[in-house]
Amino acid sequence: MSESKPIQPPRRDFLKQVAAVAGLTLAPGVFLQTVSAAVNASQRWGLLIDSNKCGDCQACVTACHTENGITDHNRPETDAQWIRKVDLRHKTTGRVHSLPMMCQHCEHPPCVDVCPTGASFKRQDGIVLVDKHICIGCRYCMMACPYKARSFVHEVITDQKAHAPRGKGTVESCTLCVHRVDTGRLPSCVEACAATGRGAMLFGDMNDPNSELAQRLRTEYSTTIRADLRLNPGVRYQGI
User: How far apart are CA 141 and CA 159, in angstroms?
Assistant: First the structure.
């Protein structure tokens, strides 16, 4: 098998110019959310998910769809899934864990490495996003993501949320509800999980030693999915 050649700077610059023009036609009047002036590298937002507390409910998925204007077209193979529930079955015992899967907001995100236009990017606080205005829909990022956390938009989007710009022909994924985080609120999935009484999802600043998230990560066992890839995800799991 031949190795793919890295895209040379002139080619990458050309793609960025094409993407800028394409972006203007994708979603006129809808812009990527403003990055908070408070964003800085001293923070790293993350999640701790306890699969022992996570049941069969879909509260996190429903809340994500409602918050970000995602419509279910009853086509599970192609419908956008910013967050989805997956079942993990232990090979020996047969025990099944149900847990939410979404963008893992990696410290070293492969989706960013392969993006030819710079549309996939990571903020200083660790949140990985897609700039829909320069995404050309090549789907390299989808192939690079080991968590299958990205979706391609096949349909024309109507009535989209101003805080969650979407467009046909672009790739998207969990934003960690960045529009809420930047105003001091919890991601919608975390809020919905707490409302069920399960409390399986904990959000916080992994770099703040006084945060509950950082303290629990320090004192309790947790793991990451595909730790062997050394991507250092911002989403940690317990009970698996």
Answer: 26
Which of the listed ranges 19-23, 36-40, 161-165 does the model predict with the highest average pLDDT?
A: 161-165
Rounded distance between C-alpha atoms, residue 137 and residue 123, angstroms: 21
Whole-angstrom distance, CA of residue 70 vs CA of residue 62: 9
Rg for the chain, CA atoms, rounded: 18
State the total domains in the chain: 1
Distance (Å, rounded) from C-alpha 197 to C-alpha 23?
42
Per-residue pLDDT tens over the stretch 127-164: 999 999 999 999 999 999 999 999 999 999 988 899 99
Instruction: Kindly report the CATH number assigned to the domain that includes residue 188.
Output: 3.30.70.20
What is this structure's pTM? 0.84
Domain that holds residue 147: 45-238
Q: Is 222 part of any domain?
A: yes
